[in-house]
Amino acid sequence: MHTLPEVPLLDHTRLESFLARRFEAQSEKLSDIPHPTLLKDALKGSKRLADAIRSKETIALVGDYDVDGVTSTAIVKRFFDLIDYPLITTIPNRFTDGYGVSKTVLERLEADVIFTVDNGINALEAAAVCRSRGIDLIITDHHTPGDTLPDAYAIINPKQLDCPYPFKEICGAQVGWLLMGLLKQELNLSIDMRQFFPFLSLAIIADVMPLVGINRAIVKTGLEMMNRSQLPAFAMIRDFLNRSSISSEDIAFQIAPRINSAGRLEDASIALEFLLANTTEKAYHQFELLTALNTLRKETEAQNTAEAMECVNPSDSVIVVAGEHWNEGVVGIVASRLVSHFQKPAIVLSIHNGIAKGSGRSIGNVDLYTLIKSQEYLLSKFGGHKMAAGLSMSIENVDAFRIGINQAARTIPPEDFIPHNDVIGELEHEMINFQLLELLERFEPYGEGNPRPKFLIREADVIAVKLFGSDQSHSRIELRPKALSPKTLELIAFRRTLECPKNKKISCSYTVNKNEWNGRVSIQLMIERLF
User: Hey, how many other C-beta atoms are within 10 angstroms of the C-beta on 197?
Assistant: First the structure.
C-alpha cells in the first residue's frame, strides 16, 4: 500500500487561491497567440502553396490517423473548400501504409506540392523520393525532430532547435492552422480563422497538450463555439453528450476515443468524414460507425491487456512486451494500462511478419523518447516525445532492446519513476456542495497542465460496495469519512471492480464532477486512486 500524501485541509477560499496560482504567469488572451511568421519556414511554405494555387498546380495533403492528425486534415480541407480549390487528401492506413508520409503513400500520389500535417519530421525516405520526383514537400509537424532532418522544401515545426516560435507545446492541428493563416494572408483573403477553434480545441485536448497560455485560451473559446456550432459534427456531439455545455473532459473521455477508434481498428477516413459531414444524416451515420468501432476497440484492448500482463517481467524497471496477434491499433492504450497497473514506463509491441511495431507510455519524469533513442541502433524507426513514443524493429532485436533499455534506465534517479502526486488537499464534508461545483467550473478547462483538482479521503469507513452496469464492471462505494458523522459519501469508480477491504476502511483520492442527466444536475465524486 502507498503512504498517504501529507496535504492541507481546504475550504472554498483556500481552494480558489490554489487554483488561481496555476495561471499567474500565463497570458490567456487569444491576441497573444504568437504570429505564424515566427514559425521557421512557415512563410516559405505558405508562399509556395500560394504560388501553386495561383498557377493551378496539383496539391496533396498527407495527414495522420489519430485525433490530432484527422482534425488537422479536416481544418486544411475545410480551408481549401472555402477558397474553392481542389485538394487531394489522404490519411495513411495504420495497417497497410504505416505511419506518416511513407513510400507506399507517395506511390499513389501525383502532385506538384505535397504537404503534411501532424507527421513528417522523421520522413527522410519520403523526402528523398519527393526530391527525385521533382515534388516540393512541405512538412508541418510538432513531434520531436531526430538528429537528421528530411531534405524537404520547408519544415515547419516549433520543436526545431532554431525555430523562434515562443510557444513550443502546440499540437499538429495548431501548426497546420497557423500555416493556413499565412496562406490566407498570401492570397489576400478575408477568412475568419477563428471558425476553426472548435476543431483546434478537439485536437489540443485529444493530443494532451498543456492547457495553459494560448492553448487554454483556444480550448476555452473553442468549447464555447462548439456548444453553439451549426456544423453537423458538433451538433451530433452535443446531441450525444446531452449536456448544457461541453467540457474538455467530455472531449477527452467520450469523443476523442471514438474519433481515434477509426484509425486504430479500420481507417481514419471514417472519422474524417464525420468531421467534414455537411448533413446531420451523414454526421449521425459516421458517428454510429465510430461508436461501434469504439466498442470493438474496448473489447480488443481488454483482451490484449490481459495477455500483455502475463508477459511482464516484474523485475524490469521499463516494461517491454511483445505479442504475435495483438492489435497494432490498441498497443498504445495497452501500454497506458500497464503503466497505471505496474507504475513503470511500458512499451507494447505487436508482431507481424517478423516486425515488432508498437507504442510506449511513460510515468513521472522519465523521458521515454531519450530512453528509446539510446537503443536507436536496434530500431528501424522511432519517434515521439517525453511521455509517449512509437517504434518498430525486427523481431530478432526485441530481447536485446528490452535488456538495453533497462540498462539505460539504471542511470535515471529512482524519484523520476514516482508518478506525480497531484492530490491537493482534504475537503471538509460540508464543503462538497453546489458552491464547490461552481468554483471548480470557473477554472475549466481541465486537462494536461491544469489537472482537475484531486482531493483525499483518509481512513473512511466503508458502508457498502456495489457493482453496476450491464457487465457489472463499475463500482459504487458508500463511505463515512468520520466515525462521528451520520452523513455518508457516495463515490464511483468507472471500469473498476472494487471489493470491500478486510479492515472495512479505505483511503483514496477523488475528483468532484458535475453530473447531468435528463436536465437534472447532481454532484458526482469519482475515485481516482486507492492508497
Answer: 23
